[in-house]
Amino acid sequence: MARRRLRSSTVVLGGMGVLAATITSCGSDPDKRCVDPVTREKLPSYECESGGGITSGSSGTHGSYYYGGRVSDGKVEGGSFDKTAVDRGGFGCSGSGGG
After folding, report:
1. Bridge-partner residues for 32, per DSSP?
2. Alpha-carbon distance 62 to 38, whole Å?
3. Which of 51, 79, 78 has its CA nearest to residue 64?
4. Mean pLDDT of the chain
């Protein structure tokens, strides 16, 4: 009985998929949300895009980006305003940073 051999292109494509998944899961940024830094309420993204930081004026208070965590009852928790403090982890990542 003849055995069927895998084509080299099939093996290469499968390997490329694994490599791509490893790279994207390890190097991706944590989730970011626009948040009122005082109340920690989630805001529309345009509140963070226009000024960056907290500013009072005729347009009101602008938000700051909050990284990681989750939203519960309209407020964020479990993350940080410091992007470097949030470790995304993922397959193949050491968690120690590096670069």
Report:
1. 67
2. 11
3. 51
4. 72
